[in-house]
Specification:
Elements (H helix, E strand, L loop, with lengths): L1 E2 L4 E4 L8 H11 L25 H11 L14 H11 L4 E7 L4 H13 L6 E5 L6 H5 L6 E4 L2 H9 L3 E5 L12 E2 L2 H15 L3 E2 L3
Parallel strand pairs: 2-3, 2-5, 3-4, 5-6, 6-7
Antiparallel strand pairs: 1-8
Length: 209
């Protein structure tokens, strides 16, 4: 007889599954703001130097405004994300995939986030929508032992590591200087790391006699 706990794959959404910055930059421009670079060139989540003359309080207000706009619910996928998730679903049919996203507190934001993920057919079983900037610690601690987490923000990756998870930093231009145990340059590399971790976790463990 053998037994094991089946791990869960937990994923951040913005800039891991959905291209938030591309959608946000397009929305800013459609509302008359002068963005000084393209979304893929942004080196700082605070947009320092990207919106000249826009105070921080106004910038935070724009983030909240975008989160309730129709465009927020129509974000495109990060390159390779849908294909990689589809491969994992095929190779590990019992794998539960959940999303933990700090998108905001408005009900319309949560509805659009769920619908956007469903539109792209990620096969996610549950979506937890937290306030902007909220800690994901409690949600990660609730997952089974051996679970895996992917996020683009180093603070969340470090929390996942503290929770004993396999944590993967999904590389974007604004986190290239951050160091951690595991990181993925793209979804091809993330798929390889997740597959390796799952294969290791799912090896049967003999019961103690």
């Amino acid at each position: 007889m053998t037994s094991h706990d089946y791990p869960v794959l937990a994923l951040d959404v913005d800039m891991v599954l959905l291209d938030y910055l591309k959608g946000f930059v397009a929305w800013l421009r459609s509302n008359g703001y002068h963005v000084t670079c393209e979304a893929h060139e942004i080196r700082d989540w605070d947009f320092n130097g990207v919106l000249p003359g826009v105070p921080r309080d106004e910038f935070l207000g724009l983030i909240n405004e975008f989160a309730v706009s129709p465009e927020f619910g129509l974000l495109e996928t990060v390159q390779g994300a849908r294909e990689a998730i589809g491969t994992l679903r095929d190779e590990f049919p019992d794998l539960e995939i959940v999303a933990i996203t700090s998108a905001g507190t408005e009900a319309v934001t949560e509805r659009m986030r769920r619908a956007n993920l469903e539109m792209h057919d990620f096969g996610i079983s549950s979506v937890t929508v937290l306030p902007l900037g909220a800690s994901k610690r409690d949600n990660l601690l609730a997952l089974p032992p051996g679970s895996i987490f992917v996020d683009d923000l180093i603070k969340n990756v470090r929390v996942a590591e503290e929770c004993g998870m396999t944590a993967i930093l999904f590389r974007q231009p604004y986190n290239l200087r951050e160091t951690c145990h595991l990181s993925a340059e793209d979804w091809t590399e993330a798929l390889s790391l997740i597959r390796e971790a799952l294969t290791e976790r799912l090896l049967p463990v003999p019961n103690a006699a």
